[in-house]
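JOB MANIFEST
job_type = single_chain_structure
chain_count = 1
residues = 118
[input]
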Amino acid sequence: QVQLVESGGGLVQAGGSLRLSCAASGTIFSINDMGWYRQVPGKQRELVAAITDGGSTGYADSVKGRFTISRDNAKKTVYLQMNNLKSEDTAVYFCRITLTINRSFPFWGQGTQVTVSS
């Protein structure tokens, strides 16, 4: 069983910063990809940023230059540093991981709310 616990969401003014964390626990030998997604009501969940086990990163165009994803393999944790937040970043943010043993079956966190006030 794998569990993901997210933290760090909240309310922030436009231009401010937040740092999200997602810690994985359970029967985990090796984590493959880790990523952050977000979703607003009535819209599909979208990829925000992802990082491979080798450290390669990718970002949605809307967050490039403002968000930074990183991971600590020893802590089984993925982070999302969000700077210069905009009102359009308001969403529920979910972390997602895949394990090396079965890359086709992702695990999701429960989500953390990020609200940016203008």
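[summary]
Residues 38 and 93 are 4 Å apart (CA to CA).
The mean pLDDT is 96.
exit_status = 0
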